[in-house]
Amino acid sequence: MTREHRHHRFRTFSATAAPSTDSVLSSSSAAAVEPYKCTARFSASRRRSSAASTSPSCPSFFGIFYLPSRRRLLMGCALLVLLFQLSLSIPSLTRFLCSAVDDNFPPLMKRLFNCNNNKNGGVLLRLMERRHLLRHELIVEPWHDESARNEDGVIVRPPPDSAEVESCSKEVRQWREREAVAALQAAKRSRWEGNMRRARSIIEHAYSLAPYNPDILTEYGIYVEMARSDVVQAEGFYLKALARNPRHEEALIRRRKALPLVEEIDNRMMREIERKRDRFMRIPHNDSGLKRSMRESYFAYVYHTVAMEGNTINLAQTRSILETRMAVAGKSIVEHNEILGLDAALRYLNQSLLEVQEITLEHILALHKRVLGFADPLSAGVIRNVQVFVGNFRPPDPDFVMVELEELVSWLNDEETHRLDAVEVAALAHYKLVFVHPFMDGNGRTSRLLMNWILLRAGFPPVTIPVEQRHRYYNVLREANDGDLRPFIRFIAELTDRTLESLIASSASSLCEIGGNCSGDAADVRPADEALDTDHRGHGERRNNRQQSSQPFCAMEHGHAGH
Q: Which residues form the active site (predicted)?
């Protein structure tokens, strides 16, 4: 191909034969030297005919996109996309681009900027509809619509068509069941093939679709037992499956095998907690490390307990309020009063209730009265007389609240209860009071105080439920509502064990500071035979020993330094 033919390809809008090389260079130089002249003549040339607009001396505005350079081609396409996006919001730019459309315009751009057939500024109507999906006004019913209120002023709405809702929910339920069964079969195949990783993802998907299907619960328990070696959690799944289908054969067989192992694990954990409790009781009360840790645990207990209910005051601010009795800027009065109320309840527990031999209903009401004494004095210590709901859970009717509380108090003072482990009794008392939900507010705080009262009487340190474990706390409470109290008891036992380890470690560090033994058993001063003998004593004898050595929460030495 000659040079003349190559230059003929680059001449975009010429209608004549290909000129010579010199003429092409001269015309290109003239266009480059006089760009402003071409720009000035462009607005006039766009109103001419297509034949007149193909002047070789001044190329069209879109002529740059016919250059052979790939880089310029990509830059030109990007520029066109940008112009199109801007044209959706700037009508004047759209009209300007439409006025430049001619026969030599690229076909793709013609479909985007079709000015002859549209009245939307050159942009296709269907593209405008994609950008503006709502072309009509929204019909919004005002909240003050009088037709929606009854004679008492309560807003009432006509219920939806129950048949339509039922049919829709039925279809969704059937689809979920089919999907869950298919996932269950796939999980079984993966487990048989040894692909436990794939089996896990599939069985979790099936469990999310049908969490109460006994076959899925059993398969989930099998996976947990085989892949994680967690027989405790697996036995819980088998129990849930049997709660839905008491005759489920595979769940019966597997739970019969797992139950003795689970009981042994639980008993071993309780014995370990008892052993650590005895080590804790032998630490001198004037130990500087223990006193410092108990002091910090007091502030932590107040902070985590109120934070569990949504209080936004942090730990440092909580400590400042308790030590100085000064308000924190930017926090509400209600949040301050919640902290002061819990502090008053703890002082009442330390100073008045530790030596009480029998728990009464008046003691529980007195605790609640101090919990809400600052935040809501009208409902403090008052049993509710209306029905309340806690999520999907419905507590007992108000007519039965007093009966339930009397049964709880009678159970706490029963001799059979005294033979149980103190951690188990404390956890059960906590759950029973939360289940009854006797107050309008402050039930959780009062339940945790009752739990720690029982632990303190037995010689255990108080247990703090961290706000970071709030979701697990609610989950085990939900499992208790479903009939299995053991996960909640294990949760409280784990927290008790962790608290004992922390306090024992703090006392050991105190012994190191004064030159004592810094080994891990520094705080354990019992002989070995006494330690072994403690593990084989009866629960009632252990309880009597613990009651004689009960000590206050924090000795309240931070007392009220600001007073």
A: 437
